[in-house]
Amino acid sequence: MNEANQKKRINEYLADNLKLARSKQGWSLDACSVKTGVSKAMLGQIERGESSPTISKLWQIATGFKLPLSYFLTEQKKSAFESNSNLLNTQASISVVTLFGFDKATKMETFEITLNPNHEHISKPHNKGVVEHIIVIEGAMEYFLNDVWCVLNTGEILKFDGDQIHGYRNINEQACKFHSEGRRTRTYNKPKLIVSL
Q1: Strands 140-145, 176-184: parallel, antiparallel or unpaired by DSSP?
Q2: Which domains does the chain have, with CATH numbers?
Q3: Which of 149, 143, 147, 150 is nearest to 180 (CA)?
Q4: How many CB atoms lie within 10 A of CB 192?
Q5: Which pTM was predicted?
Q6: pLDDT score at 80
């Protein structure tokens, strides 16, 4: 599937899944805007398939609904075994591939994220109890926690509470690729760096 078709497919999933989530909550567009912090106009454009939100806006919507990010990127009728390893959400400097959509049994989802050179992504806090695991697959990156930037190299792993402001940046001349696993579990008080795979 070419990139244009992938984007069209993702926009369809976003539109359908936003409508479905809003319907399940019984929210109007106004109520949805209040809960997510995303404008009513933008939500309407997404539902009509006229706009594709940034990764940050999509996280904001998912957090407002208390749903995993992958809920909005995958077809809801399919099981985790059938779906989505090739679905891609791409912006100019970051791309996100869903490796495993949210699984209710394990309460986790996994993404492969590629940061292009000199790109920074700051994420708003996720829902309470979300723990993130970062595994650097290619290149080196920096992560932002507790108001400090620290380096992660290929093969290094980081685990931290996702319910705080955090970020990633690539200050190198080559793209950086990492896996990000979000899991709803207990919380951790301090980031834990695990060196080498």
Answers
A1: unpaired
A2: 3-72 (1.10.260.40), 106-194 (2.60.120.10)
A3: 143
A4: 11
A5: 0.57
A6: 36
